[in-house]
Design goal:
The complex is a heterodimer. Chain A is α/β, with parallel strands linked by helices. Chain A has two domains: 111-351, TIM Barrel, CATH 3.20.20; 355-392, no CATH class. Helices cover 29% and strands 20% of the residues of chain A. The termini of chain A are far apart. Chain B is globular and about 85 Å long. The chains are: A alpha/beta, B alpha/beta. Iron/sulfur cluster binds next to loops of chain A.
Chain lengths: 392, 698
């Protein structure tokens, strides 16, 4: 078979176009950050997956709209799931059964533990006390690094649970000597009714309520919740919309609004930021975040930087170097944040509380032990400056 | 050109093709495992796609032959394509994988499958086409003898290449170099078929150089899959080891997964102090594997013996040379298979700890079976303990995790009177002979042992609720035991992996089943025989490697030799089969079927009945004879196939497809689900259906 000029040209054209394709692929590979960030892992509602009848753990949802026909629009969180009869929400625990929106997670926690309040993390809220922590299945996010994915990415009927209605939760907390009840592990906004009723009852009995959340709740339910809880820790997962969408399946703006509302409603607030190498470890983002916090929440809201460890689907990545989160803490404090902490990094002075006024050590934290506790009635033992938080 | 010369050249070409394709296969498996998961499922699926794409290529060859007859020149162009493609594949794997997933994110099963198909199936399809075309050049009339000889040449090349790779190439050459080297040999063997025309030759060489350059460029510009800087990378026999540095932190990645992260004392403290606190005087310690800081923690007890067993010498070398493992005084590094080491050692220890991940492959499973735990117990001094860590309990155990935890618990409980589970960064399982006290911070304090993580965080990690939850969760009625011959944990780890990606293998299994059903229904008796022969040879290889590793340790060279023995069996079988005349074919096939059935049943019955020495002989004997019997059927089966290139191509295809089915069924379904005896027995069952098919065809 002779190769004539035409064939050669054809062959070469093929090779050149393959090279061009290869070049394109190289470009894509090297710009994968840009490219991949176009991906949105928000998820979708589950068509036709609602149970036929509301079971013993179903309660009619508090915030939703009925539209003509049997379709409803959930108004609990920013996803605003539009559910035809028989559909289940993106969070897997709200369902349209016969034109009525039900929460399927009321009184059926799948996880409950007595945790130190520092584990939430809440460092300026009754240090050294314990929080009875509960969670049901379901979450409105899809975080690739979720450490509780075996409950957050499941329906309530898929997990083993215990029957524990609000009165029983309060009783369990009381029996264990817990100062608070924490709604945590998965996303409490999705078991809102259960949390709200429990927190209201607990409040009557003098037990605090801790809302540990991704902050994607709608303003109206959030304001209602703020009346019955005592503290919140909101996980600010990134400081740009695209990372939020590709890493967690949520969005930044609604979370910022949640922070503003909680602060405005006078609930003790702390903010957590997980520093993930390559995703949320950019100093420019950190500075913008600090500037936003200072402008909208003030310098006194404690800010926790947590070290990332590979887990769930994000398991082929390195952990965050300790020096990175320590430098994040320093930068945040240099920006004007009074109380910045490092977490998941073992014993470090970055987890201790220093008075923002005189700089003296007020609380030394050795894990969950507090060998030094020099905040006296909410004031610095040394200079008497008011230390923000709930200390009683 | 005289016909005999042409036949010799084809045989040489096939020998080189066999060698080059085996090298490409070994390299690509490694490259894919580095980018995706290295679990048993992914490994089996890569082999499956490889074999089935080849089968489809073989089935398609005659149809393509209608448009392009298999001239020598076309064979050369096809050979050139088979030399060029692997270069591009090795380049593409590095650049495409990061595009498919976000950095650091595991892909899950279906994206992995998509990527594997995209990357390797065109090449495997071309291999499938190549063999029938080569056969057509080898002999104008297709006969069993001719086909068997062609196959023989190819298998011979494969045996030599796999031995070379295992013993030599993997250690000294990069993937890219191995593929280029293999391609060069293949290219040389194809030279006699090179077109006469000067321009065609020049064009071919031009394309080849261009492909190599393109592949080198792709690899050069490929983005790092990690966030930090890769400061060292090497291929060991067990996988790729890379050290990634970011700021002051070093991470050791094996096959793309972080296995060792500096600055994480927590896990080391849990793995050392939880078991140590249950022993009165922990002075003799054995660690299988290592995590960051583990020997520094162990040294706090001033041990008399501190042994670190690491099966992969390259890994321990990397850890020690990079200062990642601090060589505390008295540390003895032993590079041996842990089972072999313990079996040959009379030493007693106060604690034996596995400081490595959970078993995702059959090779790793051997350290978590009841038999291994019994071996460990025999090496524990009175009051000694055995411990390992299991991932997956934060605040709740899902169904797959629960099953897994229950299996670990039941297996440990079948050897140790007391089993404790302590939650934390991992859940630490501790087997001992005495009921453990869980006031661990108190015990550490009384001994003057200072920890930076364990004691300060104990109150939040080891709560009564968590302990009660775990105890409750593992009480599963009829929990499976993880046994040497029934690696139940591997299946559970795979279930958990699927659950993590919210997937199930169902949508993969459906088209696969349909494909095989159609194949079975349409196969001629000869093709059916080769389907079952392909199944047998692959099943024998898988089972033999598994059984051998269970009894004799996971030693890469020995496993390479075992596979070579299987290939040698096929080789000898093919030689004998090539001499079988047409009219004897049916009888030979039936006799070989009967022999396989009897041998497989004898093997199944013999399992676990003899001592290690006899078991070894049985494994070696069965590997060779079963492979020989299935190789023997190749020539006669082609004689039974419809005449012409269709028959030969169909036969090649059937053999490859059968091998693909063997990988999937044995490695993923029967072995982890039903155990070794069932896997061996399945060979007899499959062969019995083949016998019925040939017999009924009269
Ligand atoms: S709470 Fe659930 S159902 Fe309601 S909008 Fe959010 S994700 Fe959808």
């Amino acid at each position: 078979m002779a190769v004539d000029r035409r064939r050669f040209i054809k062959g070469s054209a093929l090779i050149v176009s393959s090279l061009a394709l290869g070049g394109g692929v190289i470009w894509l590979g090297n710009n994968r950050g840009r490219f991949s960030r176009l991906s949105d892992i928000t998820g979708h509602v589950f068509r036709g997956q609602a149970p036929d009848t509301p079971g013993p753990f179903a309660r009619e949802a508090m915030f939703y709209e009925k539209t003509p026909g049997a379709t409803v629009v959930c108004a609990h969180c920013r996803h605003a799931c539009r559910l035809a009869a028989g559909d289940m929400g993106l969070c897997r625990n709200r369902a349209n059964i016969g034109g009525v929106l039900y929460s399927l997670a009321y009184g059926n926690p799948c996880s409950f533990n007595l945790d130190p309040v520092e584990k939430k993390p809440l460092f300026h809220y009754r240090p050294g006390t314990s929080a009875f922590s509960i969670a049901t299945a379901g979450c409105n996010f899809r975080c690739l690094n979720c450490q509780n994915w075996e409950i957050s990415q499941k329906r309530p009927d898929e997990v083993r649970h215990r029957e524990m209605f609000p009165a029983a939760v309060v009783e369990e907390a009381r029996k264990r000597g817990a100062a608070s009840i924490a709604y945590t592990y998965s996303e409490p906004a999705t078991f809102y009714e259960y949390m709200l009723d429990t927190a209201a009852l607990a409040k009557e009995r003098g037990i605090g309520g801790l809302f540990i959340s991704n902050g994607y709740l709608n303003p109206e339910p959030l304001v209602g919740l703020c009346r019955v809880i005592t503290a919140a820790n909101i996980n600010l997962k990134a400081f740009d919309e695209t990372t939020y969408r590709s890493l967690d399946g949520g969005g930044l703006a609604p979370v910022l609004e949640t922070l503003r509302i909680i602060h405005r409603e006078g609930v003790h607030l702390e903010v957590t930021s997980l520093v993930i190498p390559g995703y949320t470890d950019k100093v420019e983002d950190l500075k913008r975040m600090c500037a936003w916090i200072l402008a909208n929440l003030g310098p006194d809201v404690p800010l926790h930087f947590l070290r990332f460890f590979p887990r769930y689907r994000l398991d082929r990545l390195e952990a965050t170097p300790v020096s990175t989160i320590e430098s994040f803490r320093e930068i945040a404090m240099a920006q004007g944040i009074h109380y910045a902490y490092v977490g998941n990094a073992g014993i470090t002075p970055g987890a201790d509380t220093f008075c923002h006024n005189c700089g003296k050590l007020l609380i030394e934290r050795r894990g969950y032990l507090l060998p030094v506790m020099d905040v006296i009635a909410g004031h610095c033992k040394y200079c008497r400056a008011v230390i923000p938080g709930l200390w009683g | 050109m005289p016909r005999a010369d042409e036949a010799l050249r084809v045989k040489r070409l096939l020998f080189a093709a066999g060698a080059a394709t085996v090298l490409v296969q070994l390299v690509m498996v490694r490259e894919l495992l580095v980018r995706f998961s290295g679990n048993e499922f992914v490994i089996a699926v890569i082999f499956f796609i490889w074999l089935v794409s080849g089968a489809i290529g073989a089935f398609a060859a005659p149809r393509l032959g209608r448009f392009f007859s298999a001239t020598g020149e076309r064979l050369w162009w096809l050979a050139l394509l088979l030399v060029i493609l692997p270069q591009l594949m090795v380049g593409a794997v590095a650049i495409l994988a990061p595009i498919l997933t976000l950095p650091g994110v595991s892909a899950g099963f279906y994206p992995t499958l998509f990527f594997v198909i995209l990357l390797i199936s065109p090449y495997c399809f071309a291999i499938g086409v190549f063999f029938p075309w080569a056969l057509a050049r080898y002999a104008p009339r297709v006969s069993g003898r001719g086909a068997a000889r062609i196959y023989l040449a190819d298998t011979g090349g494969g045996v030599i290449a796999s031995l070379l790779f295992v013993l030599l190439l993997v250690r000294f050459f990069s993937s890219f170099t191995v593929v280029v080297g293999g391609g060069f040999v293949f290219f040389l063997a194809a030279l006699p078929f090179m077109p006469q025309h000067r321009r065609a030759r020049a064009a071919g060489l031009f394309f080849l150089c261009l492909a190599i350059a393109a592949a080198a460029l792709l690899r050069f510009f490929a983005p790092s899959p990690y966030n930090g800087r890769i400061v060292s990378a090497r291929d060991s026999r067990f996988g790729r080891i890379e050290v990634v540095k970011k700021a002051e932190q070093s991470t050791v990645m094996t096959n793309g997964r972080p296995v060792f992260i500096s600055q994480t004392p927590a896990l080391a403290e849990e793995l050392v102090h939880y078991p140590a606190s249950l022993v009165a005087s922990p002075r003799r310690m054995l660690f299988i594997g290592a995590v960051a800081g583990i020997f520094v923690e162990a040294a706090k007890y001033r041990p008399r013996t501190l042994d670190y067993l690491e099966i992969d010498p390259d890994l321990s070398r990397v850890l020690l040379a990079g200062g990642l493992v601090v060589p505390v005084s008295g540390l003895r590094v032993i590079n041996r298979d842990p089972r072999l080491f313990l079996a040959g050692s009379g030493d007693k220890y106060d604690m034996i700890v596995i400081a490595r991940g959970e078993p995702e492959t059959f090779g790793d499973n051997r350290l978590f079976t009841r038999e291994f735990m019994a071996l460990v117990r025999a090496h524990l001094a009175p009051g000694g303990v055995f411990a390992f860590g299991v991932d997956g309990f934060e605040n709740y155990l899902g169904p797959a995790s629960r099953q897994r935890f229950a299996c670990y618990y039941a297996t440990m409980r079948s050897v140790f009177p007391e089993v404790a589970m302590i939650p934390g960064r991992k859940t630490i399982f501790i087997g001992s002979s005495r009921r453990p006290r869980l006031d661990i911070p108190g015990i550490l304090r009384s001994r003057g042992i200072v920890t930076s993580y364990l004691a300060p965080f104990f109150r939040g990690e080891v709560t009564p609720e968590r302990l009660r939850y775990l105890e409750d969760a593992v009480r599963v009625r009829n929990a499976s035991l993880n046994l040497d011959l029934h690696p139940a944990i591997v299946r559970m780890v795979l279930d958990h992996w699927f659950e993590r990606f919210a997937g199930s293998p169902f949508w993969f299994a459906v088209p696969v089943c349909v494909f095989f059903l159609l194949l079975l229904l349409r196969a001629s008796p000869g093709e059916y025989t080769l389907l079952t022969a392909g199944f047998t040879s692959m099943a024998v290889e898988t089972v033999a490697v598994f059984a051998f590793a269970v009894f004799h340790g996971y030693i890469f060279e020995q496993i390479g030799i075992l596979i070579s023995l299987a290939l040698a069996g096929i080789f000898v079988g093919l030689r004998f089969g090539a001499g079988v005349r047409d009219k004897e074919s049916r009888g030979v096939i039936l006799a070989a079927d009967a022999a396989i059935i009897v041998l497989a049943l004898l093997w199944a019955v013999s399992l676990g009945r003899f001592n290690d020495g006899i078991t070894t002989v049985i494994i070696l004997f069965m590997t060779f004879t079963l492979s020989l019997a299935s190789g023997l059927q190749f020539g006669p089966a082609i004689n039974l196939s419809p005449d012409g290139p269709n028959g030969a191509a169909g036969a090649f295809g059937a053999d490859l497809a059968g091998a693909g089915a063997g990988v999937l069924l044995i490695a993923l379904v029967i072995l982890p689900g039903y155990g070794l005896a069932a896997a061996v027995a399945s060979i007899a069952i499959i062969k019995a259906t083949g016998m019925v098919r040939v017999f009924s065809a009269g």
